[in-house]
Amino acid sequence: SDGITFTVLALFAFLIASVFTEHAVQVEPTRWFDTEVASVDGELPSEANDDSPLPRVPGFLPFYRFAGVPVAGAFADRAEAAAFASQGVGTGIKVVAVIAHFAIIIGLIVVGTWHFDNFQGGIAAAALYLLLPYTAQFTVRLDHILPGAFLVWAVATYRRPVLSGVLIGASLIVFYPVALIPLWAGFYRRRGLFRFLFGVAAAFGVLVLLQWALWGGGPLFREGVAALLGRGLLSTGGLDGFWEYHSPALRIPILATLVVLVISLGLWPLEKDFGNLLAGTTSILIGCQFVHGYQGGIYMAWFLPSLVLVIFRPTLIDRTADRTVPERWFAPIPEGRDPILWLRQVLLRGRKKRNN
User: Fold this and answer.
1) Is 230 exposed, middle or buried (CB count within 10 Å of its CB: 0-12, 13-18, 19+)?
2) How far apart are CA 112 and CA 121, in angstroms?
3) C-alpha dist (Å) from residue 207 to 166, 222, 277
4) Distance of alpha carbon 52 from alpha carbon 45, whole angstroms
5) Helix, strand or coil for residue 85?
6) Which of 6, 179, 206, 307 is the most exposed place for a label (fewest CB within 10 A)?
7) CA 145 to CA 143: how far, in whole Å?
8) What are the counts of helices (DSSP H) followed by strands (DSSP E) for the chain?
């Protein structure tokens, strides 16, 4: 295990070096959320309509603007997006990218240690994630890695439904993880359903409030809320990637198939275990790649951590919600390690050392 641990540390060091030498789209900090750029006399620019040359995608528009993703609503037009891109990657986005990658790696190790009872398996999962060429290619694309970090920690904290709900709600910055809600609600059907839905709703509410705080009311705010709710999901303007070369009409039957998959995985099997949750999460996120109109198919970081965990998972048939989720909100977790209690113990040990 020492050898593979060293490999993980070395690969992560190379990843950090790659992040801080990467050239990618970035928004200049002084122009983040500049409403004067995105609106004229309080009205949305014509480029933000469905016939915009920029692709329109659902999600949290301030996040897309922060990450420099050239989509309608976040940028007025391609010229503005190109101007931001020409400024290079700022230190802030590099730091966030490193933190997101670190969160994914630690999340894989935590799942292996806490839920698979196999520290070496967690280290191996982290090593596989770091060894894949994709990880080194999209090092600073926050729209790739940040949702992946939220989702892997939603898996890691699945025994605390409210935490998993908050993290899945936070991943709605790219909208598509909304398809996971029926699956996870089905998993928590016997215990923890309300706590999970409360966490999702709380995180979604925070995103709405952040949008109001950054952009205020008016057309921009309404546009942002509509994007959070899925506006632009089937927009055909400015498609990029796979759908640029294929008929956009084909996305409709693919979306219908995805909806059937989401509903079926939410209903069957009736009593889901942790293995079903991992496999279903991976399947749904892969399916979302075929619907996404902006570079769909390459957002592997959304499903890659859960796919790696599926590869390394042991038999998890006994890890059902009624056996692993506490009956009350902050009650001790039955038959397993509790991240909240673990953090509390770490803080107490640190306090004792300082007192001594």
Assistant:
1) middle
2) 6
3) 11, 13, 26
4) 10
5) helix
6) 6
7) 6
8) 17, 2
